[in-house]
Amino acid sequence: MRAVRFGEYGGVDVLGVVEVPKPVPGPGQVLVQVKAAGINPGESKIRNGSLHARWPTTFPSGEGSDLAGVVAGTGPGVTSFAAGDEVIGFTHNRASHAEYVLVEAEDLVPKPPRVPWEVAGALFVAGSTAYAVVRAVALAEGDTVAISGATGGVGSIAVQLARRAGAAVIGIASEASHDWLREHGVIPVTYGDGVAGRIRAAGEVDAFIDTFGGDYVQMALDLGVAPDRIDTIVRFDAGERFGVKTDGNMAGASASTLAELASLIVAGELEVPVAATFPLDQVQDAYRRLEQGGVLGKIVLIP
Q1: Which of 78, 93, 148, 172 could form a disulfide with 212 if both were Cys (CB 3.0 to 4.6 A apart)?
Q2: Verdict on whether the full-model pTM lies above 0.90
Q3: What contacts 250, CB < 8 A, 6 or more positions away?
């Protein structure tokens, strides 16, 4: 089978698609033929080595956590899925950017027929992270939350979940994405110089979700937001320095979260925008597009 591999830290040029043996499911495992697999900024940082201290890599390395596909086989003890089942799931083994992937049965849920493959395959990392950050800042009816990177993979889901929690949402994003934010009941604010003043003009902020990084944690504190109502998924150092939260994907990673998000999609209560899809062989181009920035929603690989 074909799978993405890289043998050293570096830019997108270290990524390649190579032939590797098809894995065989062991006890409690499911072999999934991948139909779609999202890509994420964290994978770029793992690949370029900037997260080596937190998440070191053993070479040669695969990549990818998100996946949706069809069950191709099951290991001993698996009774919840059978060959031919359509599933959504995740792996923590950096392995979903491939034609086939082994997944623990407990990390899979049935894919509803009304959820498109590219959406299902992009759901885990961004969706679970958005779920976790909204929960972390304890939003309630009448709150106002500001969200940086509001139209990125995580942000575009987080703004919708925050609205569902009853909060007014200020979305920090480029002007090109403001119409999408307005369509989802979000107050758009342009990022860049003067953004703090524009946020103040939009309303008093009770909570802040940072999906971008930079100086947003400091800005949230300057806006008067209490540290326990700030969550960043980028500036892990801010957790130690300021006492803000750093809940992210692992805080929301579960099959039950995936099932809940999928049900919201089916009900028409959640949109997961997909900006582009790329064949597996064009994985370098997919990450180039992601790393250029300004992507509305997700980019997805189609093996």
Answers
A1: 148
A2: yes
A3: 132
227: left (phi over 0), alpha (psi -120 to 50) or beta: alpha
| Tokens found for residue 81 | 């899925």
How far is residue 188 from each of residues 30, 185, 197, 223, 273, measured CA to CA in Å?
Answer: 43, 9, 13, 17, 17
Cβ–Cβ < 8 Å for 100, 55: no
Average pLDDT score over residue span 197-215: 96
- Residue 157: pLDDT band (50, 70, 90) is very high
Neighbours of 275 (CB within 10 A): 18
- CATH number of the domain encompassing residue 166: 3.40.50.720
Q: Is residue 83 part of a domain?
A: yes
Query: What is the rounded distance in angstroms from the CA atom of residue 251 to the CA atom of residue 227?
Result: 18
With a pLDDT cut of 70, the percent of the chain lying above it is 100
Answer yes or no: are the C-beta atoms of 33 and 3 closer than 8 Å: no
Look at residue 54 in the predicted model and tell me its pLDDT: 87
Q: How far apart are the first and last CA of the chain?
A: 10
At 197, list the tokens: 């003043």
Angle (CA) 271-170-214 rounded to 5° is 100
| Residue 260 resides in a domain | no
Structural domain that includes position 12: 2-122+272-302
Q: How many C-alpha atoms does 84 have within 13 Å on its Cβ side?
A: 0
Distances (CA, A) of 15 to 3, 22, 137, 273, 280: 10, 19, 37, 25, 11
